[in-house]
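Researcher: Dear colleague, please comment on this protein.
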Amino acid sequence: MPANTGNIARTCAGTNTQLHLIEPLGFSTEDKYLKRAGLDYWDKVKITYHKNLPAFMASLGAQAELFLISKFAPRDYTQVDYTTPEKDYYFIFGKETTGLPEPYMRANEEKCLRIPQNDKHIRALNLSNSAAIVIYEVLRQQDFPKLEKKHLYENDKLK
C-alpha cells in the first residue's frame, strides 16, 4: 500500500535507515498517497529499487544478515543480537494480506522472526508499524547510533 510505504520511508528518514523496495510493488511511487504519507522527507531517504527478489539477494554484501518477518516464525525479533558492528541487517516484510510466500519461509526458517500478536482478533499488524517495531529494536540494541539524544528542557532558557 502506498501509505504504508510512505510511513516506512518516513521512519527510515528519521532513523538513517536505508529502504529497499522490491518490485513489483503493486503501485506507483508517484502515487499521491505515498507522497502524502512520506510528507516532505523523501529527499532524506536513501531508497534502492530492485527489479525482483533475486536482484535484491544478489545486491547483498558478504556482511549481510537477512531476516524474514512473519507471525508464523518460531522465534521473536527480540531474540536476535543485532550488535555486531560489521554486519548489515536486512528485514523482508510481506504483504499484510498474504505475508511472505510459505515455500520461501519454509526454505529459510532459521531466518524467520515474528512480532508477537494476538491473531484471534486481527489478521496482521500494520506493515509500517511492524517495520518501525523491528527498526527500533535494532537501533535500541545498538544504543541508537547517529541519532540525536536531546534531553527534556535542554533548550529551555528557564533552567
